[in-house]
Amino acid sequence: MKKKRIVITGGAGFLGSHLCDKFISEGMEVVCIDNLLTGNIENISHLFGNENFQFIKHDVTNFIFVPGKVDYILHFASPASPIDYLHLPIQTLKVGSLGTHKALGLAKEKGATFLLASTSEVYGDPEVHPQSEDYWGNVNPIGPRGVYDEAKRFAEALTMAYHRYHGVDTRIVRIFNTYGPRMRLNDGRALPAFVSQALNNQDVTVFGDGSQTRSFCYVSDQINGIYKLLMSDIHEPVNIGNPSEITIKEFAEEVIRLTNSNSKIVYTPLPVDDPKVRQPDISKAKKLLGWEPKISREEGLKMTIYYFQNSLHKK
Ligand code: UDP
Question: Which residue of 30, 48, 159, 293 has the smallest Cβ count within 10 Å?
Answer without folding.
Answer: 48
